[in-house]
Amino acid sequence: MKYFAFALIATTCSAPLYAQVVDGSVAAANTAGPGPVRTVNQAGQWMQGKLMPANTMLTVTPMQDISSKHIEVGQTYRFVTVGDVVENGATVIPRGSPVAGVITYKTGRAIGGKSGKFDVEFRTVLVNGKEVPLTGKHHQEGRGNTVGALLGSILISGRSAVMIQGQQATAFTAGPVPY
Fold first, then answer.
1. By the 8 A CB rule, do 121 and 102 touch?
2. How far does Cα 134 stand from its chain's mean position?
3. Confidence check: pLDDT of 12 > 50
4. Which of 96, 58, 77, 57 is nearest to 164 (CA)?
5. Is the CB of residue 9 less than 8 Å from the CB of residue 15?
6. What is the DSSP letter of 95?
7. At a CB cut-off of 8 Å and minimum separation 6, what does 50 contact?
8. Most buried one in 91, 95, 149, 162, CB count within 10 A?
9. Rounded to an integer, what distance in angstroms lies between the CA atom of residue 62 and that of residue 115?
10. What are the structural domains, with CATH classification, of the chain?
11. How high is the pLDDT of residue 11?
């Protein structure tokens, strides 16, 4: 009998009565009677239960100029989305949403006409207060100096790689995004 009472108490305590957290959202029971479970996002709005598919493309631009002359591997830079990302007529990721990118590779300009280079990997976009994971990498190269390369000069070097504000790059959602 005591095992039955223990099982009954454990089952009652482990099952929430009105709400359950699922992936940062709350699934609330319909208190009006039997029916579907409705989901609430972090802003307290009822979600429609739709998902924007993974690998959805978004276009981003840096919020400041990024130069291979002044960066280090591991530094995070801020980008913003250039346009709205729309799925089935609904704006899922609004224009101007903040995006985080991390420098993953860098070389400075070098002798003999070698140009500077860097890679930035896109990590997250902030949507309705929630960070959504991204994938994608942008490679930026400076212009080499062909005269220096031809002459083999130690005095002539290439140019630094620079990504300017307004320059566009592509990132992709890493997984489905609820809206």
1. yes
2. 4
3. no
4. 77
5. no
6. T
7. 87, 88, 90, 178, 179
8. 162
9. 21
10. 1-47 (no CATH), 50-178 (2.40.128)
11. 44
pLDDT in tens, 22-60: 444 444 444 444 545 555 554 455 556 899 999 999 999
Q: Is the pTM of this model over 0.70?
A: no
More confident residue, 22 or 75: 75
Minimal CA–CA distance to 118: which of 94, 140, 137, 136? Answer: 140
In the structure encoding, which two tokens stand for residue 92, read together?
């899922």
For residues 117-140, give the mean pLDDT: 97
The token duo for 22 is 């699922």
**What are the phi and psi torsion angles at 52 (to 5°)?**
-80, 130
In angstroms, the CA 93 to CA 57 distance is 11
- Say if CB 169 and CB 138 are below 8 A apart: yes
With a pLDDT cut of 70, the percent of the chain lying above it is 62
Whole-angstrom CA distances from 53 to 50, 86, 134, 173 are 10, 11, 12, 8
Contact 112, 100 (CB under 8 A): no
Q: Say how many residues make up the chain.
A: 179
